[in-house]
Amino acid sequence: MDAERINMVEGHLFKKMVKLAWPVIAANLLQTMYNIIDAFWLGKLGRDALSAPTISWPVIFTALSFAFGLSVAASSLVSQYTGRGDEETSAFIMGQVLSISLILSICIGTAGAVLSRPILTVMGAKDAVLDLGDVYMKTIFLGSPTAFVLFTVGGAFRGWGNSRIGMNLTAISVLLNVVLDPLMIFGIGFPRMGVFGAALATVISRGVSAVYALYIIFSGVRGMKIRPKDLIPHWRYTKLIFKVSFFSSLGQSITSLGFTFVMSVVARFGAALISAFGVGNRVTSMMIMFSGGVAAAVATAVGQALGAGKEDRAVRAIKMGAWFNFVIIGGLCVLTFFYGRYVTAVFINDPEVVEIGKIYFKLVSFSIPFFAAMQALMAALDGSGHTFQSAVVNIARLWGVRIPLVYLLTNLYGFTGIFYAMIASNIAALILAIIALSIGTWKKPIINVEGR
């Protein structure tokens, strides 16, 4: 069904980017619903229950960074081979990435489940937050293969030019999670499972969607089909996949470890700050997911354009994406700046948490548009497969700017120092991205040296 695929190599670029971006935006916003739904229902159980997933997610996201790296590799390679007109190799790449994804996710999931409690202890979790966080983290880690499958399949289809597949897969898992979450948390038709129920609902929901994803790619009903033999590792392509995904995964995992460090600092100030910080992060994440959808469209446009030898079209896509993100996210941040108190109260009606949430949104909202623009610029590096530079930017803006400032400013200003550090690092991220892109090495497609 090639009619479902968007050819980014020719035609009206902005219209095609919007057409490719909106399903990604929808899927990303739906993805954040996992956390939003958990936060809403767990908030009804109190601070400790709400804090459990909040303190766990930086560690979980560190593991998922490997899935993200494989997704970037799938999207980048598939988009460039598609732009060059090599559909057979595009499908083969999907099979190669999928087999690597399954093996890696089993290893990571097992290790994460075993080490969850020691990690949380090092992060500063105590008492009920430690016990509940351990249960939540173990469950999510053991369900890692389902998330890896969804990342891989969605990334490959996005690079091919069909972003609706990822949206549909995410919609299935989120809608099922919406139904299962309160039932499993509060014991409606199930035993009352609390925090464990929230995690289990997420894993089951992803599992159902992952099974459907496998059906799509093996049956070929959506236009791209892989064969069982495509799953057998081929050294040349395994090496190429790892070359692209390694730095993307490394950058994401190291920055995730940085967020884990930041969360450990947050944890020192108590459950009220953890809860407010968790709500703030979830809401700003929804905006970042929007800009991330635009960035995904930029990555596909850049990959297909470079594969077809159309460098100027790739440059145009980057500029469009960056300005679009800055303006739209800037408008949304005006709302959170003025109404942050009420946004926080939707999740947890605790006076202390609400007051901290108000401060969070007053300060952090200012910097989010800069980060959103940076995402579009970094998409050029991911789409072209030059992920080393994007990893450097991600690591530098967090470990070079945010973490040192968190340490320094919390000593000077208390917990608000964390928010000041976030502002500085988000602005620095855009500056670093502009510098990285100006070097120009991203304009060279990585498939030129590979032939099948």
Structure summary, number of beta strands = 0
Specify the number of helices. Answer: 14
**SSE string:** HHHHHHHHHHHHHH
* Average predicted confidence as pLDDT: 87
Helix content: over 70%
Q: Largest beta sheet, briefly?
A: none
Question: Per the principal axes of the C-alpha atoms, what is the gross shape?
Answer: globular
Distance between the termini: 24 Å
Q: Enumerate the spans where pLDDT stays under 50 for 5 or more consecutive residues.
A: none
Q: Please identify the structural class as seen in this structure.
A: mainly alpha
Strand fraction equals under 5%
Q: How many domain regions?
A: 1
Radius of gyration from the alpha-carbon trace, in angstroms: 21 Å
Structure characteristics:
single chain; 452 residues; mainly alpha; globular
Describe the structure.
This protein has 452 residues and is mainly α. The protein has one domain. 83% of the residues lie in helices and 0% in strands. It contains 14 helices and no strands. It has helices spanning 13-43, 47-84, 87-123, 127-142, 144-160, 164-186, 194-219, 235-267, 271-307, 311-347, 351-364, 368-384, 387-413, 416-438. The model has no long low-confidence stretch (mean pLDDT 87).
